[in-house]
From TrEMBL:
The keyword Membrane does not apply. Keywords: Amino-acid biosynthesis, Histidine biosynthesis, Hydrolase, Methionine biosynthesis, Multifunctional enzyme, NADP, One-carbon metabolism, Oxidoreductase, Purine biosynthesis. GO terms for molecular function: methenyltetrahydrofolate cyclohydrolase activity; methylenetetrahydrofolate dehydrogenase (NADP+) activity. PANTHER family: C-1-TETRAHYDROFOLATE SYNTHASE, CYTOPLASMIC, C-1-TETRAHYDROFOLATE SYNTHASE, CYTOPLASMIC-RELATED. Belongs to the tetrahydrofolate dehydrogenase/cyclohydrolase family. Residues 140-278 form the Tetrahydrofolate dehydrogenase/cyclohydrolase NAD(P)-binding domain. This is Bifunctional protein FolD. Pfam families: THF_DHG_CYH, THF_DHG_CYH_C. Homodimer. GO terms for biological process: L-histidine biosynthetic process; methionine biosynthetic process; purine nucleotide biosynthetic process; tetrahydrofolate interconversion. Its EC number is 1.5.1.5, 3.5.4.9. It catalyses: (6R)-5,10-methenyltetrahydrofolate + H2O = (6R)-10-formyltetrahydrofolate + H(+); (6R)-5,10-methylene-5,6,7,8-tetrahydrofolate + NADP(+) = (6R)-5,10-methenyltetrahydrofolate + NADPH. It comes from Candidatus Amunia macphersoniae. The gene is folD.
Length: 291
């Protein structure tokens, strides 16, 4: 058996078409959705991600307002930018690219974003709604992109054993909550988990979000399992996931590649969130859509 490779580029194109249709509805009602982004620091990965977010926003007819404060900015400087974007009526979604430089208090910055403009779903209000299992217009982009990949490939979720490796606020924790809300039985693993391979090998759905290239091997994978690789690691100039593809592909039932798996979905889901926030805040009469 060899895994079905889940093509994130094809899936992301489908999400983008749906978003484009909703942008057209809003535009017809005289509303142009807007996304404000804050990129602070010299992280080359962050700059690449934000560039691709800006490119897609513009392709879709979403106004993109990029702020690039100096790497030595203070927390107060960043809070000032977030407040500007909060008050700007042409901005529906705000994205503060993470990680921020070490001198900046990331929690304060995320807390300062208006919850109804929180394009990343990282504000404690929206995160709390997710934890409660309550409906929310915004869910963090990478985990919601993973859920779209699972749903669009009809991977059985109800009652499935799901294991998430990684407990970050950006991916691992919200991913576990989304799987739980989809009726999976969920285990979260991390760097202190004992017998990691044994726990992972019980999973019908295994999500690797650890940030360690090639760490998940065939020994971690139950035959036929769906393996979602969230890792984006730069190794000798190339991108590598957290999953050792050569070892896992013959065992898994489904596998997301790196690059071309989860990455394109993250960007597409950010546009989805921005348009959903726009419709909810300004688009009375224009359907908000759901995911
Ligand atoms: N850094 C890496 N991924 C993300 C993301 O999805 N959102 C933000 N804000 N920062 C990131």
């Amino acid at each position: 058996m060899s895994a079905t490779i889940i093509d994130g580029k094809v899936m992301a194109a489908a999400v983008r078409d749906e978003v484009a249709a909703r942008v057209s509805e809003l535009t017809a009602a005289g509303i142009k959705p807007g996304l404000g982004a804050v990129l602070c620091g010299d992280n080359p990965g962050s700059a690449t991600y934000v560039r691709s977010k800006g490119r897609l926003a513009q392709e879709l007819g979403i106004h993109f307002d990029l702020r690039t404060p100096a790497a030595d900015s203070s927390t107060a400087d960043i809070l000032g930018l977030v407040r500007d974007l909060n008050e700007d009526d042409s901005i529906d979604g705000i994205l503060v690219q993470l990680p921020l430089p070490a001198q900046i208090d990331t929690d304060l910055v995320l807390d300062a974003t208006r919850p109804d403009k929180d394009a990343d779903g990282l504000h404690p209000f929206n995160f709390g709604r997710l934890a409660q299992g309550a409906p929310s217009p915004v869910v963090p982009c990478t985990p919601s992109g993973c859920m779209e990949l699972l749903r669009r490939h009809h991977v059985p979720l109800r009652g499935a054993r799901a294991v998430v490796v990684g407990r970050s606020a950006l991916v691992g924790r919200p991913m576990a909550m989304l799987l739980l809300n989809a009726d999976c039985t969920v285990t979260i693993c991390h760097s202190r988990t004992s017998d990691l391979a044994g726990v992972c090998a019980e999973a019908d759905i295994l999500v690797a979000a650890i940030g360690r290239p090639g760490m998940i091997t065939a020994a971690h994978v139950k035959p036929g399992a769906c393996v979602i690789d969230v890792g984006i690691n730069r190794v000798d100039g190339a991108l590598r996931g957290d999953v050792d593809r050569a070892s896992v592909e013959p065992v898994a039932g489904w596998l997301t590649p790196v690059p071309g798996g989860v990455g394109p979905m993250t960007v597409a889901m950010l546009m989805h969130n921005t348009v959903a926030l726009c419709a909810a805040r300004r688009g009375s009469g224009v359907p908000a859509g759901s995911h």
